[in-house]
Protein backbone atom coordinates (compact mmCIF):
# COMPACT_ATOMS: atom_id res chain seq x y z
CA UNK A 1 0.00 0.00 0.00
CA UNK A 2 2.85 2.38 0.87
CA UNK A 3 4.50 1.76 -2.51
CA UNK A 4 1.24 2.56 -4.32
CA UNK A 5 0.84 5.81 -2.38
CA UNK A 6 4.41 6.85 -3.20
CA UNK A 7 3.85 6.03 -6.89
CA UNK A 8 0.61 8.04 -7.05
CA UNK A 9 2.17 11.00 -5.22
CA UNK A 10 5.20 10.93 -7.51
CA UNK A 11 2.98 10.81 -10.60
CA UNK A 12 0.92 13.78 -9.36
CA UNK A 13 4.05 15.83 -8.73
CA UNK A 14 5.65 15.03 -12.09
CA UNK A 15 2.50 15.69 -14.11
CA UNK A 16 2.10 19.12 -12.54
CA UNK A 17 -1.52 18.53 -11.49
CA UNK A 18 -3.15 20.14 -14.51
CA UNK A 19 -6.78 20.08 -15.54
CA UNK A 20 -8.40 20.95 -18.86
CA UNK A 21 -11.86 22.00 -19.94
CA UNK A 22 -13.99 24.08 -22.29
CA UNK A 23 -15.99 27.27 -21.85
CA UNK A 24 -18.91 28.20 -24.11
CA UNK A 25 -19.17 31.84 -25.14
CA UNK A 26 -21.04 34.18 -27.47
CA UNK A 27 -19.64 36.85 -29.79
CA UNK A 28 -22.42 38.76 -31.51
CA UNK A 29 -24.75 36.07 -32.87
CA UNK A 30 -21.97 33.46 -33.01
CA UNK A 31 -20.92 30.86 -30.47
CA UNK A 32 -17.28 30.44 -29.58
CA UNK A 33 -15.57 27.82 -27.47
CA UNK A 34 -12.61 28.49 -25.20
CA UNK A 35 -10.27 25.70 -24.21
CA UNK A 36 -8.35 25.99 -20.98
CA UNK A 37 -5.56 24.24 -19.18
CA UNK A 38 -4.87 25.17 -15.59
CA UNK A 39 -2.08 24.26 -13.23
CA UNK A 40 -3.55 23.51 -9.83
CA UNK A 41 -2.04 25.30 -6.84
CA UNK A 42 -0.42 27.91 -9.12
CA UNK A 43 -3.60 29.87 -9.95
CA UNK A 44 -2.75 30.38 -13.61
CA UNK A 45 -3.14 28.63 -16.91
CA UNK A 46 -3.59 28.79 -20.67
CA UNK A 47 -6.65 29.96 -22.65
CA UNK A 48 -7.30 29.33 -26.36
CA UNK A 49 -10.21 30.43 -28.54
CA UNK A 50 -10.99 30.68 -32.25
CA UNK A 51 -13.18 33.64 -33.18
CA UNK A 52 -15.86 33.45 -35.92
CA UNK A 53 -13.45 35.34 -38.21
CA UNK A 54 -11.07 32.37 -37.96
CA UNK A 55 -8.43 34.15 -35.90
CA UNK A 56 -7.00 31.89 -33.19
CA UNK A 57 -6.07 33.48 -29.86
CA UNK A 58 -3.79 31.92 -27.26
CA UNK A 59 -2.55 33.32 -23.99
CA UNK A 60 -2.11 33.12 -20.27
CA UNK A 61 -4.58 33.87 -17.51
CA UNK A 62 -3.55 34.71 -13.97
CA UNK A 63 -5.73 34.62 -10.87
CA UNK A 64 -5.09 37.37 -8.33
CA UNK A 65 -3.95 36.73 -4.79
CA UNK A 66 -3.14 38.71 -1.69
CA UNK A 67 -0.30 37.74 0.60
CA UNK A 68 -0.15 38.89 4.20
CA UNK A 69 3.35 39.21 5.61
CA UNK A 70 4.40 39.05 9.21
CA UNK A 71 6.11 37.04 11.88
CA UNK A 72 5.24 33.60 13.22
CA UNK A 73 3.47 33.82 16.56
CA UNK A 74 3.45 30.84 18.89
CA UNK A 75 0.73 30.62 21.53
CA UNK A 76 1.08 28.05 24.29
CA UNK A 77 3.70 26.65 26.62
CA UNK A 78 4.98 23.60 24.73
CA UNK A 79 5.39 22.54 21.13
CA UNK A 80 2.70 19.86 21.59
CA UNK A 81 0.05 22.33 22.76
CA UNK A 82 1.07 25.46 20.87
CA UNK A 83 -0.85 27.18 18.13
CA UNK A 84 1.36 28.77 15.48
CA UNK A 85 -0.01 31.62 13.38
CA UNK A 86 1.78 32.22 10.07
CA UNK A 87 1.65 34.33 6.96
CA UNK A 88 -1.33 33.63 4.72
CA UNK A 89 -2.41 33.98 1.12
CA UNK A 90 -5.96 34.83 0.06
CA UNK A 91 -6.94 33.74 -3.44
CA UNK A 92 -9.02 36.26 -5.39
CA UNK A 93 -12.17 35.44 -7.33
CA UNK A 94 -10.85 37.71 -10.12
CA UNK A 95 -8.61 36.59 -12.97
CA UNK A 96 -7.32 38.36 -16.08
CA UNK A 97 -5.95 37.09 -19.37
CA UNK A 98 -4.08 38.47 -22.36
CA UNK A 99 -4.33 36.44 -25.55
CA UNK A 100 -2.41 36.99 -28.79
CA UNK A 101 -4.09 36.30 -32.13
CA UNK A 102 -2.45 34.58 -35.09
CA UNK A 103 -3.52 37.49 -37.36
CA UNK A 104 -2.03 40.27 -35.20
CA UNK A 105 -4.92 41.14 -32.87
CA UNK A 106 -4.92 40.90 -29.10
CA UNK A 107 -7.68 39.94 -26.66
CA UNK A 108 -8.08 41.01 -23.03
CA UNK A 109 -10.31 38.95 -20.73
CA UNK A 110 -11.74 39.48 -17.25
CA UNK A 111 -13.11 36.54 -15.27
CA UNK A 112 -14.97 36.20 -11.97
CA UNK A 113 -14.57 32.75 -10.45
CA UNK A 114 -17.33 31.08 -8.43
CA UNK A 115 -14.90 28.91 -6.44
CA UNK A 116 -11.51 30.64 -6.50
CA UNK A 117 -9.76 27.85 -4.63
CA UNK A 118 -10.25 25.48 -7.61
CA UNK A 119 -9.78 28.01 -10.41
CA UNK A 120 -11.70 27.71 -13.69
CA UNK A 121 -12.92 24.21 -12.81
CA UNK A 122 -15.21 25.80 -10.20
CA UNK A 123 -17.16 27.85 -12.77
CA UNK A 124 -17.84 31.55 -13.14
CA UNK A 125 -18.53 34.29 -15.67
CA UNK A 126 -16.37 36.41 -17.93
CA UNK A 127 -15.99 38.75 -20.84
CA UNK A 128 -13.30 39.49 -23.39
CA UNK A 129 -12.63 42.27 -25.87
CA UNK A 130 -10.32 42.16 -28.87
CA UNK A 131 -8.16 45.00 -30.15
CA UNK A 132 -10.58 45.16 -33.12
CA UNK A 133 -13.46 45.77 -30.64
CA UNK A 134 -15.07 42.32 -30.90
CA UNK A 135 -16.66 41.23 -27.61
CA UNK A 136 -17.19 37.80 -26.09
CA UNK A 137 -19.33 36.94 -23.05
CA UNK A 138 -19.29 33.55 -21.37
CA UNK A 139 -20.36 31.48 -18.39
CA UNK A 140 -18.68 28.34 -17.17
Describe, in plain words, how this protein is organized in 3D.
There is one protein chain. The protein has 140 residues and is mainly β. 10% of the residues lie in helices and 57% in strands. It is built from 1 helix and 10 strands; from the N terminus they run αββββββββββ. The strands form 2 sheets. The chain has an 8-stranded antiparallel beta barrel with strand order 1-2-3-4-7-8-9-10. It has a two-stranded antiparallel ribbon with strand order 5-6. A hairpin with a 5-residue loop joins strand 3 (44-50) and strand 4. The longest helix is centred in the N-terminal third of the chain and has 14 residues, at 2-15. The radius of gyration is 20 Å and the shape is elongated. The chain starts with a helix and ends with a strand.
Task: State the gist of this model.
The chain is mainly beta.
List the defining traits of the structure above.
mainly beta, disordered N terminus, 10 strands, about 140 residues
Query: What is the helix/strand order?
Result: HEEEEEEEEEE
The helical percent reads: 10-25%
Give start-end ranges of low-pLDDT stretches.
1-14
The largest pleated sheet is described as: 8 strands, antiparallel, barrel
C-alpha-based Rg, rounded: 20 Å
How many DSSP-defined strands? Answer: 10
- Percent strand: over 45%
The 3D shape can be described as elongated
Number of helices: 1
Structural class computed from helices and strand pairing: mainly beta
